[in-house]
Write a structure and sequence with these properties.
The complex is a heterodimer of chains A (113) and B (116).
Chain A lengths: L3 E4 L2 E5 L4 E7 L6 E6 L5 E7 L5 E4 L2 E6 L4 E6 L8 E8 L8 E3 L3 E6 L1
Parallel strand pairs in A: 2-11
Antiparallel strand pairs in A: 1-3, 3-8, 4-5, 4-9, 6-7, 7-8, 9-10, 9-11
Chain B lengths: L4 E3 L2 E4 L5 E6 L6 E7 L6 E7 L2 E5 L6 E5 L5 E5 L8 E8 L11 E2 L3 E5 L1
Parallel strand pairs in B: 2-11
Antiparallel strand pairs in B: 1-3, 3-8, 4-5, 4-9, 5-6, 7-8, 9-10, 9-11
The chains are: A mainly beta (113), B mainly beta (116).
């Protein structure tokens, strides 16, 4: 059964600092997604990582995927208050007969001004 | 281009009742997935429909059922509601099955269901 684990679950950091969120998953898959959710809102797609070694960057966020280690990272550079949100990673089961997307529990990020 | 829409926005039901939630896919999208998100938790996959057929299901009991219509809109039906069914229900659409190469899912605003 595919399991997705994120850490940390909660992160409070100062503006201007760098930090990394980790996403581990349990079975073979080369499709991983990162989403952002603001309080009371729906999910917004951030990154789609489709192969080993994939790296995507948007502003102060950079995501990478290592399929051999079954690990993705979301790196925050010089954090700003507007990045405060909950970040989820999600993994595709890569099973045509039982196609599903499994989410991690999320990382609640609070950036202090 | 119209995004994913869901109705109703909020709903209050009592235990034992039945509920139907609705989702309209983004234009051109033929794949819909439904998720349950309890407060403070990640979305839990309920099931996915591709061209009107269910092709993936999460660990939810049979009282959670769904439909996808020829226009690719979708319904989620929940029978015999329980208190633990209180959650935000999210619908997401994509231009095909992600496993087949579609880019990503686009989420609707959700339906907040409260079961008393």
């Amino acid at each position: 059964e595919l399991k997705v684990e994120q850490n940390p679950l909660f992160l409070s950091m100062q503006e201007g600092k760098n930090y990394t969120i980790y996403c581990n998953y349990s079975t073979t898959s080369d499709r991983l997604y990162w989403y952002r959710q603001d309080p009371g809102k729906s999910l917004e797609s951030l990154f789609v990582l489709l192969s080993n070694g994939a790296v995507k960057q948007e502003g102060r966020l950079m995501a990478s995927l290592d399929t051999k280690a079954r690990l993705s990272t979301l790196h925050i550079t010089a954090a700003v208050h507007d990045l405060s949100a909950t970040y989820f990673c999600a993994v595709d089961s890569a099973d045509y007969r039982d196609d599903k997307i499994i989410f991690g529990k999320g990382t609640r990020l609070h950036i202090l001004p | 281009e119209t995004g994913v829409t869901q109705s109703p926005t909020h709903l209050i039901k009592t235990r034992g009742q039945q509920v139907t939630l609705r989702c309209s896919s983004q234009s051109g999208h033929n794949t819909v997935s439904w998720y349950q998100q309890a407060l403070g938790q990640g979305p839990q996959f309920i099931f996915q429909y591709y061209r009107e057929e269910e092709n993936g299901r999460g660990n939810f009991p049979p009282r959670f059922s769904g439909l996808q219509f020829p226009n690719y809109s979708s319904e989620l039906n929940v029978n015999a509601l329980e208190l633990d069914d209180s959650a935000l229900y999210l619908c997401a659409s994509s231009s095909g099955r992600l496993i087949a190469g579609a880019d990503t899912q686009y989420f609707g605003p959700g339906t907040r269901l409260t079961v008393l």
